[in-house]
Amino acid sequence: MRDFQLPGRSPVYAAGGMAATSHPLATLAAVEILRRGGNAVDAAIAACAVQGVVEPQSTGIGGDAFVLYAPPTGGVVAINGSGWAPAAIDAERLRAQGLKAIPATSPHAVTVPGAVAAWEALQRAYGRLDFAAVLEPAIRYARDGFPVHPRVAFDWVRAEERLRASEAARRIYLPGDRPPAVGDRLRLPQLAATLTVLAREGAEAFYRGELAAAMVASLRALGGVHREEDFAEYEPEWVTPLETDYRGVRVLELPPNGQGFVALLMLNILEGFDLAALDPHGADRFHLEAEATRLAFRDRDALLADPRHVPVPVAELTSKAYAARLRRLIRPDRALADLPPPLLRGLGHTVYVSVVDGELGACSFINSLYDSFGSGLACPRTGVLFHCRGRAFRLDPNHPGVIAPRKRPMHTIIPGLAFRDGQLWACFGVMGADYQPVGHVHLVTNLVDYGMDPQEALDSPRVMAWPDELLVERGVDPQVRAELARRGHRVVETDVPHGGGQCILIDHERGVLVGGSDPRKDGCALGF
Does residue 459 sit in the same domain as residue 365? Predict the structure, then answer.
């Protein structure tokens, strides 16, 4: 895999429309849909569907989705496309089996995939084209084949053992009984057939009928307790975004069961420091970001759950007063000690799509399998690779995130939007499981405090406080690492980059879009 620190790349400028994704074929698909008269919603769904084919380690129709959409007419709508646990799930029975946590490769980690239902609900409400049109590029790549790109091949090799744990996954996703190499051409005929059914019959076919029956049968054969009604009764949820003001920029995130409030809490904490006076790649900036991360994650791990089942004190967590109390705990010269451990420890695999159309409608779209290749469990008939979001549930009966029937797990995936001077300004997202709110904060502060363009902001080296280690990328200067260690951080170089992201800024004064795409992934930003 190429080095993930590539400073000095230029942003992309366009006036007619723009898309930025983590894979070039997905970006091309989005631009193709825009040129055919589709809007940002159509293009984002098309891009994500393509990514589920050409980046199968990261996303797919067996996963979940969260979306923020700002229509050209004004306002912002949000949809939570995360699935629920089966109605027959029983935490006490799982504990009786000796489980302390839900393994990622267990069928109990597979909640009902919510992505397809969210795609169709969003597209019906706000798209211009029909569902068949936006799925056509993905069907074409799955049926006719696609070349494997470098980052995808790198991830595929790392996930080989997980894919071998399931006979269907091994057969479908290890062609020739090995991970495909860079440049290998791969076809996914079962997935092409499933996508073709969805194009013809819509999401109804995924949640009811033969496809749903096949997926449920495959999960039950692996020991799951799923039933067809768990799929048939699922619906995505339209929700009201959360927001905060950061130095005059209105930043929007989705509410729980996602972790969007973590990004807002971190921004509120950091607003009390003069970041602009600090070196953007220096120890002072990274130290403050790390301490805000650790404090915000402490609250996430204690309180984040499905608000349909337990109350989550979002108003307090996102208030300026609460952030001020946390800010007072931060010492500029020393790392805090004795924080509780985080809920999860994993790199996570997700795709993010940013699309702004010619009318300045903006779709911030994120879709995920969670771990690389999700649970590693696949349905042999449909080719659907199931995610493992259920591993975020707890088995502690006293924790708000304990697994329960029809409950949604804690979610890490978060799309972002930002407004400036009352106008839509930025459509952005950063992948990387737990890193995502940190990535949002790092990106927003790069843009606002340091005046970076989208590409500079994405290229910038990253750190992640987690919480007893500070995982630093290779691009962090050795002297900065030494200073962070002196302040009490346990500095460890990460062997893979922190996530990947995309960002499109709207320059209203000049009438252009300015886009960037993260060098940590294979993708790009394109416009016309």
Answer: no
Query: What whole-number distance in Å separates Cα of residue 200 and Cα of residue 476?
Result: 50
Q: Is 350 a catalytic residue?
A: yes
User: CB neighbours of 459 closer than 8 A, spacing ≥ 6?
Assistant: 5, 6, 7, 8, 9, 516, 518, 519
Chain Cα centroid distance, residue 423:
25
- Cα–Cα separations (whole angstroms), residue 237 to 4, 54, 61, 329, 510: 36, 28, 17, 37, 37
pLDDT at residue 496, rounded to an integer: 86
What CA–CA distance (Å, rounded) separates 305 from 404? 11
Half-sphere exposure of 262 (CA within 13 A, CB side): 36
The 10s digit of each residue's pLDDT in 496-511 is: 889 899 999 999 999 9
pLDDT of residue 338: 75
- Domains identified in the chain, total number: 2
Establish if 420 belongs to a structural domain: yes
Average of per-residue pLDDT across 154-159: 94
Asked if residues 317 and 303 have their Cβ atoms less than 8 Å apart, the reply is yes
Structure confidence at residue 105 (pLDDT): 95
* pLDDT, tens digit (0-9, with 9 covering 90-100), for 339-370: 644 333 444 567 899 999 999 999 999 999 99
Residue indicated by tokens 């008939």: 381
Pair (277, 159) in one structural domain: no
Give the CATH number of the domain where residue 304 resides.
1.10.246.130
| Distance from the first to the final alpha carbon of the chain | 30
Provide the whole-model pTM.
0.94
Instruction: Kindly state the average pLDDT of the residues 156-171.
Output: 93
Catalytic position from the list 111, 194, 244, 350: 350
Give CA separation, 322 vs 87, 166, 220, 289, 340, in Å: 37, 46, 45, 17, 19
Whether residues 226 and 275 fall in one domain = no
Token pair of 348, please? 């996570």
Q: Cα dihedral sign for 433, 437, 443, 446?
A: negative
Measuring CA to CA, which residue among 410, 415, 436 is closest to residue 499? 436
